[in-house]
Predict the 3D structure of the following.
Amino acid sequence: MQATQSPFRLILVGLVAALAPACDQVHVGPYLPSPDSFVELEPNDTPSMADFVAITDSTTFLTVEGHVQAIGFDVVDHLEFEACEPMELRFYLEAHAPFGDVDVSIYDPIDQVILGTYASGGPSEIGTLLIHEPGRPFQFVIDAFVEDTPWCLQLEGFPAPLGLQAPDRPSDLQGERTRGAAEAAPRPAIETDAPSQAEA
């Protein structure tokens, strides 16, 4: 249940939305629909205070706009989502300040681990998540590297790639040896295409 918002906070959120630059649409689907638009709600500076934005599926096309500081009280923004089905989720994050540089990490609040970090050194980050487990929450953790900046995050859902919906455990027909190997290394709930630490 969401708490009621004070009139001052609603006016402030409306002002931020009106003054923030519009997101560049980077839709790759067959037509260009209008995305569902959201504005981040503060405070969202820790995983436990993440701004829950939406439940996603393979038809999701949405944008979230916000602001983050390089130094100050709002140095990180946590945005939480939940996928209602196995799916592929592509994202595009862009800074709108003249020298803005935003980075983003994908955080699993259940296992309390960072799954991947995108820090290219430029004004935008792009990546893909493969979500294997429906109902699993995940967070985008956005921070500014050089200067305070407004930002825009765009998410676009796609059907799960072939084989993504297959069960983690092999059937009884595959035998004990195969089952043991599969159970020793279960597939993660969410995968990213972020560069590994060795590649960075």
Remarks:
- Confidence is low (pLDDT under 50) at residues 8-22, 25-30, 166-182.
